[in-house]
Amino acid sequence: MKLITHNILMCNKKGCTKNNFPLRLVVKQYADYEADNAQEYSANLMTRLLEKLDWNALKITVATLPDWGIALPDAVTPELAKDEAFLQSLHMLLVRRQIIDGEMVCPNCERSYEIKNGIANMLLQEDEV
After folding, report:
1. 23 with 106: CB under 8 angstroms?
2. Closest among 90, 88, 26, 30 to 61, alpha carbons compared
3. Can you list the domains of the chain with their CATH numbers?
4. What is the pLDDT of residues 55-64, one digit of tens each?
5. Planar angle of CA 96, 7, 106, nearest 5 degrees
6. For range 89-99, the mean pLDDT
7. Alpha-carbon torsion, ordered 26, 112, 59, 54, to 10 deg
8. What local confidence, expressed as pLDDT, does residue 44 receive?
9. Which domain of life does this protein belong to (predicted)?
């Protein structure tokens, strides 16, 4: 699962409607895809993605992953959105890095969603719908 995917996921458990985003990420294993196994870098694509991302949620999530060695600025300025090095590091973070095993935990109800073999299981049990 990629962080770009994580950036849109929230808890949908019945009754959990407040403070259910972003899900807290617990990473047990991650991998970086080589350029030939991931989508090619495109500055234009990354600039368009910046407009769609929930930057605050991404910043909060990345701050909980200190071993990833990436720190994000508080905000994306117009100058930063044109900075090639910044866009390339964002591409690495959002597109090439994948969470292999771990879980996402709702900050409100503590419901855990497993990530196994790079796939997040967001299915709810019958009593949670």
Report:
1. yes
2. 26
3. 3-128 (2.20.25.10)
4. 999 999 999 9
5. 125
6. 92
7. 150
8. 94
9. Eukaryota
Which of 20, 120, 28, 23 is closest to 67 using CA atoms? 28
Q: Around 97, how many Cα atoms within 13 Å sit in the side-chain half-sphere? A: 18
Plot region of 99 (φ>0 → left; ψ -120 to 50 → alpha; else → beta): beta
pLDDT band at 70; cut points 50, 70, 90: confident
Question: Over 80: is that where the pLDDT of 36 sits?
Answer: no
Dist CA 118 CA 129 (whole Å): 24
Give CA–CA dist 58/40, Å, rounded. Answer: 21
Q: Quick check: helix, strand or coil at residue 29?
A: strand
Rounded to whole angstroms, the Cα distance separating 27 from 86 reads: 24
Structure-token match 């950036």, residue found: 7
Helices 43-52 and 84-91, packing angle to 10 deg:
70
**DSSP 8-state code for residue 1:** -
Amino acid letter for position 114: E
Map residue 25 onto helix, strand or coil: strand
